[in-house]
Backbone:
């Protein structure tokens, strides 16, 4: 894991920031890095979240809260804080590790599109089928992700700015040219494209789902499913609905 001092000013801004503001951000990060260097990561027991940046950096924070609709305020271990554009974040996850994480194997259920039928009471079934087909994904898998992420609530917003049915971070929906993440059909299309890209990158559904929840950098640096409880519970919830016979589905 890289330390906070390696976060450049450009990774903390969207567009052009005044030099004075960028300097303050860098100073706040540098101060946090100095504290971390003295105490070591294990000495900072009060870090509660892990901020995963789209450029691959990871930053431990004690709290994360939205500022308006476009930024997030991150409190740093040892004092200080920074405010960054949401578009620079891949994910923010709870920094709680499972005591004895068990391997989560690849599911045996088919995840590409084959006209799989959804249960008749599935909300947004027609939109899910269309978006799934366009990304060559099983609609049952997509419905399971929607259920785990938002419980089929199109206006759902997470504590860290993920929005809509598939709980897309701004780095995803802005990157795909959406004006808003709350239109169900557009959210499903963008979310399915994002999940398909993760599948193509990792070649493994379990890892793709882990990256969907925890961010690409977290999975890449873990060399597998990260030990974070939030991420592992998410993967299990998806498998419990999509592939109930999967070992460990629904556990955790």
Residues:
């Amino acid at each position: 894991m890289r330390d906070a001092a390696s976060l450049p000013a450009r990774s903390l801004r969207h567009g052009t920031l005044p030099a004075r503001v960028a300097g303050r951000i860098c100073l706040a990060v540098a101060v946090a890095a100095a504290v971390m260097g003295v105490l070591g990561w294990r000495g900072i027991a009060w870090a509660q979240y892990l901020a995963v940046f789209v450029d691959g950096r990871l930053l431990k924070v004690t709290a994360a809260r939205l500022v308006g609709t476009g930024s997030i305020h991150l409190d740093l271990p040892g004092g200080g804080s920074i405010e960054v554009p949401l578009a620079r974040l891949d994910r923010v996850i709870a920094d709680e590790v499972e005591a004895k994480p068990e391997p989560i194997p690849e599911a045996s259920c088919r995840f590409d599109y084959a006209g799989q039928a959804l249960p008749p009471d599935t909300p947004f079934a027609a939109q899910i089928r269309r978006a799934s087909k366009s990304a060559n994904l099983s609609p049952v898998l997509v419905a399971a992700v929607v259920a785990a992420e938002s419980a089929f609530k199109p206006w759902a917003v997470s504590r860290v700015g993920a929005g809509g049915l598939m709980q897309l971070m701004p780095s995803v929906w802005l990157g795909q040219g959406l004006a808003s993440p709350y239109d169900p059909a557009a959210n499903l299309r963008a979310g399915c494209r994002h999940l398909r890209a993760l599948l193509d990158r990792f070649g493994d559904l379990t890892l793709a789902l882990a990256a969907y929840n925890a961010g690409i950098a977290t999975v890449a640096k873990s060399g597998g499913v990260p030990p974070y409880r939030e991420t592992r519970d998410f993967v299990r919830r998806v498998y419990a609905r999509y592939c109930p016979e999967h070992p460990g589905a629904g556990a955790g």
